[in-house]
Batch of 4 targets.
Target 1
Amino acid sequence: MEIKIAIDAMGGDFAPSHPVAGAVLAAREYGAHLILVGRRDAIERELAKHRAHGLPIEIVHASEAVAMDESPVTAFRRKKDSSIRVAATLVRDGRAAGVVSAGNTGAVMTTVKMICGVLEGVERPALCAVVPSLKGASVWLDIGANIDCRPEHLVQFAIMGHLYSREVMGVRNPRVGLMSIGEEDSKGNEVTREAFRVLKETPLNFIGNVEGRDIFNGKADVIVCDGFIGNVSLKAVESAAEAILHFMKEEISKSLLAKMGYVLARPAFRSFRKKVDYAEYGGVPLLGVRGAAIICHGGSSVRAIKNAVRVTLDFVRNRVNDRIHEEILTIAAARGTGAAPPAGTRVAAEGTDDAR
């Protein structure tokens, strides 16, 4: 069965040029059938800049776009024909298997949750980032969708992260760690201590608490925390990476010897930059919603959009949603807690306006 992916062509700082160019690259490289959603005239002008004739790309018109600084709830209520809403509707109606957007993160989360709904058994969808580590890459969630969490939410994040790591990242038996302020069982707040107790009883490969220093050392394949901790930590990490690159450039420019050393070490610098470049991972999936939803950085490059399509295809082909649904209901039944919201439940947005 052919997989169709909807792309919010009007979302992001460089829309529609980057979304359209990224779609063209993805169509060529992956043979994906893509649906560009947005103002038809603007999309057609961008497509004309590329040799896109004959590629499996179609256009679905949407007359409105959500601004990057617009209130997510207000945009959802007032802009009935926004590009992200039309794209999410395509997923809900089965015309597309997933959606990719570099638009206003809060608006994308709100719209996808409200239009597509959440999977049966899932209480809170979570944003999931893939970060480089000393042993490959780790899955980190939640990074901004849920500010205040209960223990059962963290447990569900662990299940979803475990499945994403296994099915999409190819880790056979992912090690799951719970972010806390110490490795000991007793460390953390009331929420993390209770989540720790429950996670020990699940069939997951739970290795206990991990700390901030473990984000990049490869100790865990899945790192679980609430959206407040995840979002603050992720932005701090991004800032630190940028600062390190800036400091290095500053020091290199101070002497001729340093400049000569840089020329010799240039391949290593390029490799380092590639490892910390978000464009390599395309975007972050919103786990727990019906359909695949990949949210990209607002300033996403053409390559980032292309890679986001690849991530979406992997998500759909590996039936991640089916496995999340099955696993959560199985563990809930084993604990005697029953399912959470019934199928198709629409939930209000509870996340941040900007999870980047």
Target 2
Amino acid sequence: MNTLNLRRKIGISCTFIFILLTISLHAQKEEWEQLFNGKDLSGWEHTGPGEFIVEDGVLRTVGGMGLLWYSREKLQNIVLRVVYTVRNNDTNSGIFIRIPEEPTDPLMAVNAGYEVQIDNGFRHLHDDYHCTGVLYSFTKAAAYPQKRPGEWNVMEITLEGPRTVVNINGKEVTDFTEGDEVPQEKRWFEPDRGPRPDAGYIGLQNHDDFSVVLFREISVKRLK
């Protein structure tokens, strides 16, 4: 084989490898579907007091207590990724999952779904059932990985059948499966006990005037 032909074959092989790598990288990026487009609230509906507004490509909570929920479909067997930051450690908010029906008020999400809590203030009260990353009042925190106010956190919630796993900044906080033992309700504002469905709507909580949370990414990866 002469040198020219060898160079041509090497060039073709390199081009083919480059194309395969490009396709692979593109496919990896496409695995994550953006539920928030960074421009407006298309695909989302709000119920209850307060609101969410879009500023500089980021969702911001205003007042409350209300619920912004994704209305296009119920979700199951997914990884839900939420990138957020808080104004201070006492900021109260949450990510709702497994809401069985279209919510007409925020309490439907509280009592019929699960709230993955955002609130580091409760940690200082030594209450491991009401801090960031737990299923609010159902599960006990296994770690406390939320960053300081102003720093961005990556929360990933895996919904696989009846199992819910919550990781924050790469650390597991919650691993819960329907039927696991949970504590009894201790406070009037804690959610109703009982099973939640595999498929449900998701939502974000705007809790009150003093709790400001910013969300810059809400995306899902579907599990096969």
Target 3
Amino acid sequence: MALRLLHSADWQIGRIYSQFEPDDAAALFEARFTVVERLASLAREHSVDAVLVAGDVFDAQTVSDKTIRRLFNALSGFDGAWVMLPGNHDAALAESVWTRAHRLGVVPPKVVTCLEPGVRVVGERFAVLPAPLMQRHTYGDLTEWFSSASTPEGMPRIGLAHGCVQGVLPEELDSANPIAANRASTANLDYLALGDWHGSRRLDERTWYAGTPETDRFRANDSGQALLVDIAGTGSPPEVKTLQTGRYQWRQMELRMAVPSDVDEALRLLAETGPEDVLQLRVSGVCDLNGQNRLQQGVEAARARLRALVYESHALRLEPTDDDIASLRADGYVGEALQQLRTEQTGLEAERAREALVILARLLNERGASPVAVNAEAGS
């Protein structure tokens, strides 16, 4: 029998983005609910038989009751089956976010929560073999039982797991939970739906990571997608198509300043960003006072335009030119202090000297000593 599935994972509902300003963090928090609504819309649009969610539906066991309720409300756009698996962030502990959701009575009948291993037949259409995490970290392969599990004859066998495929993915993943690389073959699966790797990735013809549907980190790994899976019949190879789901584009810029034209290029790149971008900007090298001022102004303009911005300039060394110092028109003790701070930027207290130099230059500017304006946040 033909089967169509929508494969997703790593929603991490309730995630807190503490590295961003409060209004940006709140918008990114909300985006994770919005993308679930988008998944429901896609499931309806493509007439899928079920949506598979391969772990980490929630970001933590401690999410609020309101967050739990909002998550299940977001599923209302699709009336078909939702098959959900606990991952390492929301493991099926004796007392967990899942037991709390059931106790609250907010899990709709259309949602199949796989809180323990065992074959589950969904809508008389296919058999799910789930490998729920019962604790955050395990060191045995929880999918091993798939190979000996019996399912109704002629019904597609779908594996559902969350973890790290051995010998394929980097070791620094959130979860150390191992999965055999050949599990789809040894268990005679028609499709193995995986979660934990936050980008879409094909491991073999029948084994895929869906990735998170809304990008949540600065890593180019094909995130912000879901997988539409068509299986013509038992034993037929699946046809897998990626569907774009995410709203925000997480980008990184690594810029090195050496000459004034480098500041011009940085400002040009910043001007190309927009309201759907989440940007991490790292600046290094050397810059004079005028260039620092222009760069800081460009950063602040971008901060107001972007969805979120993380600016790192601790590796940018401020080196005022003789003209910069002369334009400050500082003499006597203040002039001597400026010169001393210039030399100390290469010593052990370089960071403090850089900050002090910027602050002093700003104060002189505010007193009308010079047309050069320097922001106190430089070098922070």
Target 4
Amino acid sequence: MTAARASLRIALVAEDYYPQLGGVPEHVHHLALELNRRGHAATIVTSRMRGPQRDASFVRRVGTSVVLYANGGVSRITVGWRLTRRLTELFQAGRFDVVHIHGGLAPTFGLLAPLAAWRAGIPVVATFHSWFPRSAGYRVLKRPLQRMLDRHAALIAVSEPVVAAMSRYFRGAWEIVPNGVDVGYFQPNGRRPGDALTRGPRLLFLARLEPRNGLSTVLDAMPRILERFPAAELTVAGDGPWRGYYERRARSLGPRVRFLGRVFGDRPLHYGTADLYLCPTTRASFGVTLLEAMACGTPLVVSDNVGFRAVLGDGTEAAIVPNDDPAVWADTTIALIEDPGRRDAMSRAGLAKAARFAWPRIADQTLAIYQRILA
């Protein structure tokens, strides 16, 4: 049997994983599913989190996850006794061929897991998921972190903006493997472009409720939208520590705004029954929810940031509007509601774009990297 066909044992290490929701958990989980479906043995290594956790058989948890609130968002670090040693023992016991870290250089696993893998004699691949304008930590620790990166067998970024952000501080042979979408799970469900005018417009916001995801912009745009379309409805899907604040802000809009709380398994239903998905996130490295919405045939109105531009390109599938400008968001939303033909064209373009990010394609790219470094 050739090396390219041999079954591989892969550890996918992630600070963020279920029950936390987001781009990294989705990427890691679906990559593991696709690798295992092909006969490889992928194990997800993450930390214990608060609340019930019904894990798949291929998940291992080490240490305890602690939530940090900073820069208008949520991040996690893992704490625990002798984490590096415990990771080393886990990697050795699993006899892994590759340790693939998602969130390279990020505390805690992004720094400790490479050390553990090298102690176990296993090559390290790291995927970087975050875009940022600047990093004081990278500037101060540039030299030791560069030495760590130099030992990695491969460096992956999910988008060109991530490469640009990392390249401000570090050199490396960066490869781009984007996030993916399950096009078998996220599918259109029958909502037609004309329904917005005959049944009333349905608008969707789906994201973690934190300031950088921009729900305030949509709430401030709603009075203008409701003035033109009194039957319009905004569904807010997501949860977080700022939920109470946003609910108070939405009280003046009455029943036209519904807060669903945390959603997961029913996301295709929410995307598919919306006439427009509104995504005013001000800072992003990619845009997994954009792919999910497009796979459901839902047109998009999105904020103008480098991560979304990396996914959308010329914006055929979406209307790209300035950040934090409720009047423009309202006018753009109204214009699209009034133009079913344009929304139909956006929907078809979105379906075609999502197909390019289907998980089998992403797994092919990732496996090619594994097989190259193991050759």
